[in-house]
Amino acid sequence: MPMHLEDLQTPCLVLDRRILERNLARMSERMHRLGVSLRPHLKTAKSAEVARMAVAGESGGITVSTLAEAEYFADHGFRDILVAASQPPQKLDRASALLDRGVDLALITDDTDAARAIAAHRGRFKVLIELDSGDRRAGVRAEGDVLLEIARILGDRFAGVMTHAGHSYGCRDIECVRQVAANERATVVSAAERLSSNGIECGVVSVGSTPTMTHADNLDGVTEARPGVYMFQDLFQAEIGSCSRDDIAVTVLASVIGRNELENRFLLDAGALALSKDRSTQATPHDAGYGEVWDTECKPAYGDCRIERAYQEHGVAVSDSPIDFRRIAVGTKVRVAPNHACITAAAYDRYYVVDGGTEIIAEWDRVNGW
Ligand code: PLP
To answer: What is the pTM of this model?
Structure first.
């Protein structure tokens, strides 16, 4: 007997393979057209099944953000892994165990002491220097002296430069994203040129965020791109123009556990832990609260229904128009589209996979933790 969404215990995480495939194909095609190789970031999906689909037709390299992810993907046969978040020196032994297993592991750094620790370690890591292209989270300046200093400290472990234009998330129109993408590219390319003119060859020139890789029109001089959220998309990406709501591949399946017709609201068994407390759409034209409520076929069947309040295990769903309570019996299942797919998915250890409909065609695991 095939299983359907109706048969699942809630809350749980649902992934639509058909939408995922479409999102993957669109980004791959775009990166091929712009002449860069796609090194998909698996920090969103954290799943070997998704990773295999994402690298189909690509070089096979992936990006991760934790050593737990690197270990999990190594266990599943991936051999070319970039850990694109700086690691404390205390984790170098653990990272080098992956080298011992034959993984081609690259680390990143933006710090001279960290570079010294890496250079002194027995593990022969490849290392990319992180540049700040405007996000002000991490990274050295492309025009500063520290860039050359770190490259010299790293010696033959130096492999290239990378940046992540996280500030593209602050854009509210596509022109702004294009401008951020142009700066992202200019930052890494100018750093690579400076290194080269100082006799230091820069093999890898790496950029990537979902908004910038969706809208960049020129990636000359860049060798690889590392978008991640594009696989699943989410309400925030839809609001800033990276996708439409139809491209959202991951939703939380929840059940109605209470109703208040008088106050035009109902209660779901998905609260802050199941949905996350991400409120990123608050700063966009359509504030979706803690997520938008769709029916099990992903139709916005309850008007503009959204989770207005999230308690640990309760989500309060409201709408500006009258809710049709004949369709909201206690036990009714709904799908909640997430504001930020990466953060919402982090509560779950597996995906229930559908293929456009409501039948469960597979269960795929995911890795969490650090
Ligand atoms: N590269 C790095 C270093 C990142 O931190 C991230 C995301 O945080 C990405 C790439 C992927 O970007 P996005 O999440 O916009 O797809």
So the answer is: 0.97
